[in-house]
Amino acid sequence: MQCKRIEVENFRNITHASVEFSPQVNLLLGDNAQGKTNLLEAIALQAIGKSFRGAKDAELIRFGQTQARVTLDYADDVRDMRLVTVLEAGKRRKTEQNGLPVRRASELVGGLRVVLFCPEHLSIIKSGPELRRNFLDVAISQLKPMYLTSLQRYNKILKERNRLLKNAAEDASAMKTLRDTIDIWSAQLAHEGAIIARYRVWYVQQVNAAAREVFADMTGGGEIPEMTYDGSCHMERPEDYLDAAAVEQSLLRLLTTSHDREIGATYTLWGPHKDDIAITLNGVCARVYASQGQQRSLALAMKLAEGEISRKLCGDYPVFLFDDVQCELDSKRRDYLVNKIRDKQVILTTCEPSEMQRMTDARVVRVSGGEFSG
Ligand SMILES: Nc1ncnc2c1ncn2[C@@H]1O[C@H](COP(=O)(O)OP(=O)(O)OP(=O)(O)O)[C@@H](O)[C@H]1O
Ligand SMILES: [Mg+2]
How many whole angstroms separate alpha carbon 47 and alpha carbon 347? Predict the structure, then answer.
């Protein structure tokens, strides 16, 4: 899979840009605050249906403008595709794929796939569980439309359920509404939650296998990482989460028997929004015991594993988007990364002109004040 060309209008600090990509390494080179990450954000928007920096659509439109447009041409082995997204202040975003409207984000699944790697991903091992859940959500959503649909439903239901709990905690008269309606929300939450958990445990199994291989390759073996799904629905073993009916039952039991505790906490205490990935290295918790270098190698292995899984399932590699990660890596890991991605399409950003020497065959695009040349 490869990105061929992008055209961007009034997106972030970019008034107008048209950039052609090489099927291999593309280096977006420029000083700080010139628009490098903005361009990656525009590409990723077309693959994951949202800003990877968590920005709202209105924030993506250039200051003082009312509309932004991103046109991306990409291709896999058989098809040439064009994705056009129009963002307009105060309106719903419009996306078209080869001229046909895309009504739901899940309709984008099966189209452009990317693996996005930013410096914050390097702390995926030591950070809180949110980053690890986000890793799963972004990766699985690009592969399984059902997952994305369930996740979107789940998040809506969770919001409503949390609102009920918060209202009941703050105002005793809201207790009746809670008693009348919470079980309906709980049943829906348990249903979608079980679907999400099943996909996640499956994906963590894939990551475990693929990341082990990459990690051994990177470090020369010796240390063995293990990643397992750490669910919050009180199932005995990680693989029990593959049984969606049993998970639904277990989650529903938790949600229907603990209203007082949940009102006390003012939010929902069980479900995939509390899940995690347990990561060990040689049998001990990597978050607590692994060195910073080991944690970074593990993070890198997980990201490269994401690419391997995508290839295994879809037949070709996704496009790798690296936002300034090289600067955060030591030279051994940098060399490993450069070697690993040499035969794939990668679009990476850097402030360091010396990266050009490291990647002699890269297509270099210079970025300055939201303009792209080269
Ligand atoms: N909606 C917007 N309209 C206009 N400019 C914006 C908008 N949103 C962000 N910017 C500006 O875009 C500029 C470039 O941002 P970007 O994150 O792409 O920088 P960068 O080249 O990746 O820099 P760094 O090397 O520091 O990461 C920032 O200075 C920011 O203020
Ligand atoms: Mg940047």
Answer: 14
